[in-house]
Amino acid sequence: MNKKLLSILFSVGVFIIGCEKAPHTPVTSSQSKSDDQVLHKVRQSDLDELAQQLDVSFSLISNAVPEKCDKTKTDGLCFEASITLTPQKTILATDWQIYISQIAPLHNFDSEEFTFTHLNGDLHTITPTEKFKGFIKGESKTIVFRASFWSLAESDIMPNYIISGENLTARVIDSTRAKIDPDTQLEYVPYVNDYTDYQHHFKRTKDDKTPWLDSVGFYQRNSALGDTVLDVSKVIIPTPKVVKYSENNGLLDLSEGINIDFGNTDKSLVIAAIERLAMFGISQHAKGANLKLSIEADKTKMIGSYTADIDSTGITIVGVDNNGVFNGLQSLASLVSLAKKTVPYLHVEDEPLYEFRGLLIDTARNFRSKAFILKLLDQMAAYKLNKLHLHMGEDEGWRLEIPGLPELTQLSSKRCLDLDEQSCLMPQLGAGVDSNSSVNGFYSVADYTEILQAATARHIQVLPSLDMPGHSRAAIKAMAARYTKYSQLEDKEKAEQYLLHDPNDTTKYSSVQFYNDNTINACQESSYRFIKKVMTEVQKIHADAGQPLTRYHIGADETAGAWLESDICKAFIANNDYSVTKMSQLGAYFVERVSNMISDMGIEPAAWSDGLDHTNKENMPAVVQANAWEHLPWGGHMKVNNLANRNWQVVLSIPDVTYFDFPYEADPKEHGYYWASRRTNTEKVFQFMPQNLPAHAEFWLDRQDQPYISDDTVQTDEQGKIIHQPLEQGRSFLGIQGQLWSENVRTDNIAEYKIFPRVIALAERAWHKASWAVPYNYIGYKYSQDSDVFTQAMQTERDKQWQLFANALGQKEFPKLDVADVKYRLPTVGAKIENGLFSANSAFPGLAIEYQEQGKDWQRYIKPVKVNTEVKTRTMTVDQARKGRTVVVKYN
């Protein structure tokens, strides 16, 4: 559920087709030719050769072609692109199909030789017509198409075009396969040509003011951090509430390790933090510095609070609970530098700002390995995040084994090419044909138990999410396969027991992701039997793993206009005990019923704000978690206020700043979607003021880098009814959650790149209340770039603190991530050449930079150097094993 991602989607589409060269002269009937020399129905050998010999090339033409768009679709907005097919061998086979994943809906195309058809979701086909003349060696056919909105990033384009034929084994066209860059260790799709044109490739519309920063632009921006690398030996991330350093600047030597007195703590609940210290060279040893741990309960403090003291006698950490002791140990680890085994004398009094400090990982669209999740839990705990929202059920995949419902994982954990979807789901999102590829998979009960136990040891609550009633195609197809299986066995009761769709429903609808069959029928009892069965099994797994299931995320968002022609729903509307009288009420009815069902099981419901918006508060349980994901320039604070004023537990999931599937920077080479934010770098996350959402209008811009206004005053409609009001006095939020949606995140390395280091800044904002943040105005206020509530003094203080934070990341945290084998994003180098002098800097001072003059080897950059050619430059890890993206600095 990449929130409203399709409000601006982009991406691969296919197709207007014509020949670049003169058509091949057909063979006359008088000529004697073999089957290979005349047009013929495709055979397996032809299919194999097409997969091997067909070179595919994608080129973006323009994002500004309004005259060519279909005015009835997506506000008449579209981009134009081309795909060129060049065979390296003459292949005269026909009657084949090419399956292509294309996120943006097609507007129009022209072709005599080919037909382009949308199947479902992002899946489309190209098929030859009767006028197809075959592929002739070296002769290119260019495919032009228009599709909705824009394509602004090369990562929009999906890999793995599939070619198939009737009763033949499908193949992936080799030239469309993704590859791994050996320097960055990141995936890329080589058939995509560079986006290079500012007006046609980079700009969204004529009003788009987003700057496309080159190396000189980054150099100027990075220069705000100063030329001096700061001392970060006293920095703790996230920042403690109170920290006082000794006047004599004393240092405690940890080079011989630590001698631990566990006191009354539960060793099993702090050992993960001890092991992290050992990873940094601070091991347990009888001759080490004394480390005394203890618990002193204090109900006036939030869970996880602690105090810490470091002096010449050693280290003392006192937590209000085991979680507090654990957090104190992580603060000790934050003080440690890999290069220097001393920590400063200090006194810390610390507690979290927010109770909920979370991260969502979408494992449903593209699977994330168990190893990835376990590594992620380590890093979440390191920065005191305490909620893992594990999104495991979607349109494109179901990732959790449910005892008693084997079809969910036997079928819906895999995507391949099975048109009947009896062995796997269709190959959405460029999945290819290999059901064993890394984008496929699921967590067995044993796997999930291991994840839960690892989370418990790190004081992290796992919140499972299996989205419903929309975003549920994987579950629907699995239960449809179950229906078919038991129908063939003539067991009608079992066939219909957990059926999630009405087979006689003729409703025509399209979800936000363009599926026409992804919504659970809200009117049939078998849907609720399925949910109860799933929740009962998930609850049992949690209980057996030692982490009781106390909260579950329903999803409930982006429900399409389903059910309208379902006879079951028509009958339900005519006669039910729930006061449901209109089809438009069915979505709210579903959410209310499921919420109360799981509440009766002792599980608190959570859901996305749009799914909760139309529910009746009186029909909902007392405790409800609402994830608010509305876009701030579009008035997002208004929905947030409404939810909080209902006295629901609001978790801020604001896409402008917490969606980690978005790009770090506005550059076509940067990976990610961009429907709400074109650039969400670590500094922007650091700037977030969760207590006052509308105030960001003073210093943030909208997705086209235009100013916007946030009106947080009381507002009424023409009848005088209040349609918006500020937060009620004293209202606040439960917490903050970062989101990694995975539509185009196909590898664990890309996932880590998207999460880190942004998540560290998110942890800072979730744990620590910034001194420079604008307090919320409960009377209401209208913010803009002219309102000046965020004063120059506040900005100066914020930027000063960011400077220290950025230095700490570059000098201390990145080397620790290297030790943990986390593939964090290495930033693009800022660089310039002036008067023959090459100068470079980084967004994170202390991070290593290297450069290369033409014809020479790569060199470590230390200080400005004389050059006489253009220069390539990039950042790199301490061990030089991984590099950032290379940029070229022009010689003037």
Automatic annotation (TrEMBL):
Domain Chitobiase/beta-hexosaminidases N-terminal: 52-217
Enzyme Commission number, as recorded: 3.2.1.52
SUPFAM superfamilies named among the record's database cross-references: (Trans)glycosidases, beta-N-acetylhexosaminidase-like domain, Carbohydrate-binding domain, E set domains
Top-level taxonomic group: Bacteria
InterPro entries recorded: Beta_hexosaminidase_sua/sub (IPR025705), CBM2/CBM3_carb-bd_dom_sf (IPR008965), CBM2_carb-bd_dom_sf (IPR012291), CHB/HEX_N_dom (IPR004866), CHB_C_dom (IPR004867), GH (IPR017853), Glyco_hydro_20_cat (IPR015883), Hex-like_dom2 (IPR029018)
Similarity-based family: Belongs to the glycosyl hydrolase 20 family.
Protein name, per record: beta-N-acetylhexosaminidase
Alphabetically ordered keywords of this record: Glycosidase, Hydrolase
Pfam assignment, any one: Glyco_hydro_20b
Leading EC class: hydrolase
